[in-house]
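Prompt: May I have another protein with tokenized structure?
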Amino acid sequence: MRKFFGYILSPFVIIAFFLVLLIFQPIQWVCYKVFGYAAHKRSVDILNLCLLRTVYLAGNTVVFINKQNLPIGRPIIFLANHQSLFDIPALIYYLRKYHAKFISKIELTKGIPSISYNLKYGGGANIDRNDSRQSITEIVKLANRMKENKWSAVIFPEGTRSKDGHMKSFQVGGIATILKKCPEALIVPIAISGTWKITRYGYYPLDTFERMTWEVLKPIEPNARPYEEVVKEAEDRIREALAPGPLKGEFNAANQKFPR
């Protein structure tokens, strides 16, 4: 039945989504060229709020939970599992006061209204996955901007989306590069649930009447520990948060069973 409604409601979501992208392309340009970073960032925040709201047209709901007292004026590395492209607008909007930047594929910096412009000028890192030297250089530049401006970064350590909701093992590379240049950064895990269901049939039809949840978990102080240990702790916390109810209490005793 949800798929049936998806055929009916998806066109409204898709049309609204692309209209928002088209409308904010010139708005971003004016904000950046005339008023600078602060105005451009504000336009990007509003852009992503509008993109996020388009999923309501298919009866889907958005729940963002942040009960953590996170510091302002300190670099933060947000580590999240990755289920869908719909993960991103909520992270940009609800983490807006932390100036969260993304590590993105360089291919995305061309041809996509609003999104490509923000990736070029928003302060994140655009990497070429076929050029390791370029990728490391871009991530180092991002780490330096985080250190200088007290910005934050959002990283999906799985390396790719989990299209069925099953979380993959976390990779350490980009996180270690940032921590080497910005060791004062705080690690904050985020558990994302339900976003993969929206695109379980692809981008048409979109699924309907689903609940999407983002939960900010307890921060982790790196304290000069091995990077692998810090990332593993973040991964375990996200797995625990995503585990079915009866499993949560058993997770700490069984967390080594998850494959690396």
User: Anything to note?
Assistant: The first helix runs from residue 2 to 35. The first strand starts at residue 61 and ends at 66.
